[in-house]
Design brief:
The protein is of the alpha/beta class. It has eight helices and nine strands.
């Protein structure tokens, strides 16, 4: 046995096994303890990471004031001592008896049972049971026909100038110069006059009418202007214009549509102021004048009116309302009309008009008012005028032009008058 003896022969295997098992169990218990501890720590961490579900909690709170509570003292009205004044009312006594004898019961019985007092000399056949009636005449003042009876404070006519109406004028019946409103006039010509001479004619007429418009704005409260373009006699715009101007430079021929439209214009209340530019030296009617008169005749024939029966060119007397509607004139003032080529012709010193019923529809003249309105400030010695004439001052001619406009706008039956009647 000694031959196999070594250093490890002294070791006890049982002791080693028991020690190894003891160490193994201790390590196992330690590992289990560490593993359980780590598992618990991991579970706690996972539970901490998990969020709680959303919940709504209703909290009832007391209402709060948006503004701080302020206490204000309500003002108390001052008491005033009222004094009663006794007013004695005395009833009118009847024709018989005094006021003290009036009894309400008797008045009611008298109404319920009417009685008729019959005198001694009254016969039964004449006696009537109906109460007598008394008629009295009611007198009123009718304003003149050339006035527009609309109060000046009732309507703002300038605010109505929206393009729908060509004129609105209000005139005080008590003051003929207290007139205001707006007004747009126009120049009209025939289509057959459309040539190079028409440009000169339109320029001359527009210059005179523009200065007449300035005089209208200066003398009155009517805001007036002139249409930017010239109309023809067959245009629809002419039917809404209450005052138009036309003149003739030479002979022309109006068409059927122009005559029909002009006749309709006369019937709806329009007013035409027309004049001839030149005067014949031989005392005969000028071709332009003949054309104008024929055009007027043709226009009224389209409306069933015959010359000599329904209308005629009439001389306006000096007491015509036209001469006194705004400024006072003793007849028509002379204009500024060029003489004929020979220098011997003279214009007429009167106006001719045409009436349709009681309304003055148009005025014809050859006194050259448009030339007078356009020659403001020009000196004498011009072609066709007297060389010894001093500086031209057409103040009275402008004033007469204002009369022409005011009369045409305010006369009864005019386009403006009908528009104002529709607005009442």
């Amino acid at each position: 046995m000694s031959r196999f003896a070594c250093a490890s022969s002294q070791l006890g295997l049982g002791v080693l096994i028991r020690r190894g098992r003891k160490i193994a169990w201790v390590c196992l218990m330690g590992a289990v303890t560490v593993h359980v501890s780590l598992a618990q720590l991991r579970g706690a961490a996972s539970r901490a990471r998990t969020s709680k579900p959303l919940t709504t909690q209703f909290i009832k709170r007391q209402p709060r004031l948006s503004k701080p509570l302020e206490l204000k003292k309500r003002p108390q009205p001052k008491r005033r001592a009222l004094q009663r004044r006794m007013v004695s009312v005395q009833a009118r006594a009847a024709s018989r008896g005094s006021a003290s004898s009036f009894q309400p019961a008797q008045a009611i019985r008298a109404l319920a049972r009417p009685r008729v007092h019959v005198g001694r000399g009254t016969s039964a056949g004449v006696m009537g049971l109906e109460p007598p009636t008394m008629a009295e005449t009611i007198q009123g003042s009718r304003e003149p026909k050339d006035k527009v009876d609309v109060s000046l404070e009732m309507i703002d006519v300038e605010a109505l100038d929206t393009g729908e109406y060509q004129a609105m004028v209000i005139q005080d019946p008590e003051d003929r110069r207290n007139v205001r409103g707006f007004f747009h006039l126009a120049i009209v010509y025939s289509v057959s006059m459309r040539d190079r001479s028409m440009n000169v004619l339109d320029l001359r007429a527009r210059q005179g009418l523009c200065r007449l418009v300035q005089a209208m704005n200066r003398y009155t409260h009517i805001r007036a202007d002139i249409a930017p373009r010239t109309y023809t006699f067959d245009s629809r715009e002419m039917l809404n214009t209450p005052w138009i101007y036309a003149q003739a430079l030479r002979a022309f021929k109006s068409t059927e549509s122009e005559a029909a439209n002009l006749g309709k214009y006369f019937m709806v209340g329009g007013f035409l102021f027309t004049e001839n530019v030149f005067i014949n030296d031989f005392g005969e009617p000028d071709p332009g004048e003949i054309s104008l008169r024929q055009m007027i005749d043709d226009a009224l024939v389209t409306q069933g009116l015959k010359r000599g029966k329904d209308w005629e060119f009439e001389v306006l007397p000096n007491d015509h309302p036209l001469f006194h509607c705004f400024f006072d004139f003793n007849g028509a003032p002379l204009g500024r009309c060029p003489h004929g080529f020979g220098g011997g012709a003279r214009p007429r010193d009167y106006l001719e008009g045409v009436y349709i019923g009681q309304r003055l529809t148009l005025i014809y003249t050859n006194m050259g008012y448009c030339n007078a309105w356009g020659d403001w400030g020009r000196s004498g010695g011009l072609r066709g005028y007297s060389p010894d004439e001093k500086d031209w001052d057409p103040t009275r001619q402008f004033q007469f032009g204002v009369n022409l406009l005011v009369f045409a706008l305010t006369q009864e039956g005019s386009i403006t008058n009908r528009v104002m009647d529709a607005l009442r």
